[in-house]
Every structure is written in structure tokens, then in C-alpha cells.
Design a protein that fits this description.
This protein is of the alpha+beta class and 458 residues long. A hairpin with a 4-residue loop joins β12 and β13. The chain is built from 17 helices and 13 strands. α2 packs antiparallel against α17 and α3 crosses α10.
Length: 458
């Protein structure tokens, strides 16, 4: 795997040299989609994307933070998580909850594999899928803090082989555009089918030179995996280290994410890891993880446990300023472009009043409160992560099945934390009883056990 990675990186460098010699070889104005006309502002000297993040946003004042609403009881949520594994509604699940700089829960539930069942515990590793995008945004932010990169740095300056179907657009895509899905591509998830067909990332990324555009860079949103993953090449060029190594050195190790890894070899080399599962007529079937989306490391390459996610949440909620300074976090979590399509289904339709994308994160107005959020899904794995800055609360839920049943656990926790009217987001009788019961045990001042483990990545 390591030799293959090195060969791919060397191929990228060679392609970059070719791009410097022939910068317009793969595109011309004749290839500009006929249905796309650059905005009149595009011809103005000094044009900038209309929604670039500032280098540093102002962080949330400690005085504005409030505790969770009365009755917020972590034991109730742990009971719900455990109940989700009864009858193998989902094979295995991991959940982390942090608040006010303390780990209130980091536990595992169910089993890693229905064929060879081992208990999921706090150190069992799951695939994060698109929850990985926040790691990419954060890593880019650290390079901005270092002065090695700018949010408005042009991607083509760091990846000379990068080409869109219009030379003008190619030259104007910025780092922030990549991280907020504002490249200008017409199709959502462009060329994901090629990745799913086992194509290599560097081959597929060259197809961006023929992809239809629908707007100027920075002016419209279309969620991407292939284009987003160009940030890995930018990090490589700006730092001099491979993306995977940089994430390990700058994030995993200093944050104490001791179970976390990158890629297929990373999860398969873990001491305990949850296999992916899909439904069949006879119940759950466990699979071998596919390497496909692991080839898009910034978009979907991270593996982590409940213990790791607790440390990640602590850092993202501002309690590891030695690694992630508060002004940087405020910038990462600041909405950049509206994404109203995120408000159309399930609990989001009921609770989310507005939705935006930031830098590797989604930002919701959830019942009147800002919630920083992301979801992830890849074959056999699902995950959700959310933070409520004004309650200093973070929640991550991971499971190894391709169903959506556990998704209702997240809005259940958020509703309770915010004191919103409770809804039966989870659909089992036992869960409904737990959900509607008013807890009389609020979170205590000292917090609860941080590493209690059962029977001890989108």
C-alpha cells in the first residue's frame, strides 16, 4: 500500500510538471459549456469569490455559553444507543458525547461482525466516510495559521495539473472554494461513479477538465468528493508531506486520537474494528471494506473510534487551543454558502430553519440555535457528528450498517440539550418510553465516566 501511494504521488508530481509546460493543453474557450456565461464581474481585474472566509473569525465568548437544558441525562442516551442494537436493528454502534470540555460518554454497543461477533467498545474503529471532510478543512486551516497557505490561495498554483473546462475558472478556484464545494461544477458528486468502479483518484481527477460548469467559482454550491480531494494535493504541495502523514502528525497524535488511522490498511490493521454490513433477506451480512472511497483521503479516508471522536469533539469545541486555536475554529465553522436542499427530509425538515456549508462542515439553524454538523455514508457504514457552540456540546454517532435507523438518536439528543419539545425521532416502543420520560438527573458538575466501554468512518 505504501509503495502504491508513493507511485501515485510521484505520478501527481509528473502530471504537475506537464501542467506547468502545457497549462491550457486540456482546455480551451471552445470547451466552455454553452449554457454557462461568466458573471460580468468575472472580467473585472482583481475579481474575488463573493464569499471568501476571513483569515480569522471572532470566537464565541465564554460568557454566551449555557449548560444543556434541565433534564439532559447522558444515561438515557446510552440506553437508547444500546437498545438500537437489540434484535440486530444495527450490528454495532459507537457514540461520544462531550460538554464543557469533559467527556461525558465514549462507549461502544453491539458487535463488530455478525459472523464473528466481538463486542464494540470505546476503542473499536469505524470508517468515518464524509466526516473525514472536517479533518481536511482543519488541516488546511492549520497551514493558513502557519502562513504556508491562504484561504484565497489559487488551487492551480499548488496543483498545476488541475484543469476545469474553462481556463478562466481554472485560474480562480481557491482553497476555500474546494472546502466549501463552490468549484462551480454542474453535477453533484461528479465522477463518483468512476470511483465506485474502482478507478484511481488521479485518473478521475483529470476528468474535471471536461466536466460541465454551471457558475463561476465561489458563486454556487454542488457537493463533491473528487474535486474536494484536491485539497490533499494542495496540502502536499504546501507542507512537503503526504496528506495522510500530515493529518497523523498535526491532528491524530497531538489530540490523542490513538486509534485513528487513514485508509483501508489503517482500519484493517486496527486492534478492534467494525466490519461493514448490508441487509439481505436473512438479515445482516458482513463485508470486506471497499478501497474505493479510501482513495479520496480528504473526502472519506479517516477511521476512528468513540474514544477518538471524543477527543476530536473536545478540540472542535475549543478545548484544545494548543492544537486548534479558537479563532481558527470560528473560521472553520462560519457559514459560507447556503444549502437549502439540506432542509427537505426527515428531522431536518422539522428542525432546521436554514442550512449552509462552511469549510468541511455544515452549519444549521436548528430550532433557533447554531449547530455545526456533518453526515457520512459509505457502503456498510454511517456516521453523524454535531456541535452546539452555545451549549458547548458535541455528539458523534457511528454505526456499521447501511440503514438510517440510528439517525434519530442525534436530534433526540439535540432536542433534549436545547429544551425543545421532544419528538419520537426513534421508532421503537422502548425508545419512545425513554424519550418521553422526563429525566430527573441532570449532568453533574464533575461529569461522568469518560471511557466506560460495553463488555470491555458518512
Amino acid at each position: 500500500m505504501k509503495d502504491k501511494l508513493i507511485r501515485c504521488r510521484l505520478q501527481s508530481v509528473r502530471m504537475g510538471l506537464t501542467g506547468m509546460l502545457l497549462p491550457l493543453a486540456l482546455s480551451s474557450t471552445a470547451q466552455t459549456p454553452p449554457n454557462w456565461n461568466p458573471s460580468p464581474i468575472a472580467s473585472v481585474p482583481g475579481y474575488q469569490s463573493p464569499a471568501q472566509p476571513r483569515a480569522y473569525q471572532v470566537s464565541l465568548s465564554q460568557q454566551r455559553r449555557q449548560p444543556p437544558a434541565q433534564g439532559f441525562d447522558v444515561r438515557m442516551f446510552e440506553a437508547m444507543a444500546e437498545e438500537l442494537t437489540y434484535g440486530r436493528r444495527v450490528p454495532g454502534l459507537a457514540m461520544a458525547i462531550v460538554q464543557n470540555g469533559r467527556v461525558l460518554s465514549a462507549r461502544g454497543y453491539g458487535v463488530t461482525d455478525v459472523v464473528n461477533p466481538q463486542p464494540v467498545d470505546s476503542h473499536t474503529v469505524f470508517r468515518l466516510a464524509s466526516l473525514s471532510k472536517a479533518f481536511a478543512g482543519t488541516m488546511a486551516g492549520l497551514l493558513v495559521s502557519d502562513g504556508s497557505l491562504r484561504w484565497d490561495s489559487k488551487v492551480s498554483d499548488y496543483v498545476p495539473s488541475f484543469q476545469l473546462s474553462d481556463p478562466w475558472a481554472t485560474r480562480r478556484v481557491t482553497v476555500a472554494d474546494l472546502l466549501s464545494h463552490r468549484v462551480g461544477l454542474k453535477s453533484y458528486n461528479a465522477f463518483d461513479k468512476d470511483i465506485e468502479a474502482n478507478a484511481e483518484y488521479y485518473q478521475v481527477s483529470q476528468k474535471l477538465s471536461a466536466a460541465p460548469l454551471t457558475c463561476a467559482p465561489g458563486q454556487c454550491y454542488a457537493y463533491q468528493n473528487v474535486a474536494f480531494s484536491l485539497i490533499g494535493d494542495v496540502v502536499f504541495a504546501a507542507s512537503g508531506s503526504f496528506y495522510e502523514q500530515t493529518i497523523d502528525r498535526r491532528l491524530f497524535k497531538p489530540l490523542g486520537m490513538n486509534d485513528a488511522s487513514m485508509g483501508l490498511a489503517g482500519i484493517e490493521g486496527s486492534v478492534s474494528w467494525a466490519r461493514p454490513h448490508v441487509r439481505s433477506r436473512n438479515g445482516w451480512v458482513s463485508l470486506t471494506p471497499k478501497p474505493t472511497y479510501y482513495r479520496l483521503a480528504p473526502a472519506a479516508g479517516v477511521n476512528a473510534s468513540a474514544s477518538d471522536m471524543a477527543q476530536w469533539l473536545l478540540a472542535q469545541t475549543g478545548h484544545r487551543p494548543d492544537v486548534l486555536p479558537a479563532p481558527l475554529l470560528a473560521t472553520l465553522h462560519a457559514p459560507i454558502i447556503a444549502t437549502p436542499g439540506e432542509m427537505r427530509a426527515g428531522w431536518r425538515r422539522e428542525r432546521v430553519y436554514s442550512a449552509s456549508y462552511a469549510l468541511g462542515w455544515r452549519v444549521f439553524d436548528y430550532g433557533g440555535q447554531k449547530v455545526v454538523f456533518h453526515a457520512g455514508a459509505v457502503q456498510g457504514y454511517r456516521g453523524l457528528i454535531a456541535m452546539v457552540p452555545e451549549r458547548d456540546l458535541g455528539v458523534a454517532i457511528l454505526w456499521n450498517g447501511n440503514n438510517s435507523v440510528p439517525s434519530g438518536l442525534l436530534p433526540t439528543i439535540l432536542d433534549k440539550a436545547l429544551g425543545l419539545p421532544l419528538q419520537p425521532w426513534l421508532d421503537t416502543p422502548l425508545t419512545d418510553e425513554l424519550l418521553m420520560a422526563e429525566s430527573t438527573t441532570p449532568v453533574n458538575d464533575s461529569g461522568r465516566s469518560a471511557t466506560r466501554a460495553a463488555a470491555s468512518p458518512d
